[in-house]
Write a structure and sequence with these properties.
Blueprint lengths: L20 H9 L4 H33 L3 H14 L1
Length: about 80
């Protein structure tokens, strides 16, 4: 038997959140799949934070690269091409 969502060697943990009863009732009324909405929201937030971190690191690298003279970069590229 094959399972479409089977992913080998993946561990899961359970997380919980308290919501107002009114919200919970509306989720049930509209048939909103709570688990998948929570998973998607958490994945999106992690992706957003990772992108922010990458932007910060990129800005740091750009600041460092701006300090290197252009001629030095060109020279390094030419030397690298000649090594091939």
């Amino acid at each position: 038997m094959y399972y479409l969502n089977y992913t080998p060697h993946v561990e899961y943990v359970t997380v919980s959140a308290k919501v107002r009863r009114e919200l919970y009732e509306k989720l049930k009324t509209y048939g909103i799949p709570i688990s998948s909405v929570i998973k998607r929201a958490l994945e999106e937030e992690v992706r957003r934070r990772e992108e922010e971190e990458m932007r910060r690191k990129l800005a740091e690298v750009q600041a460092i690269l701006r300090k290197i003279p252009e001629e030095e970069i060109v020279e390094a590229l030419r030397a690298s091409r000649e090594e091939r």
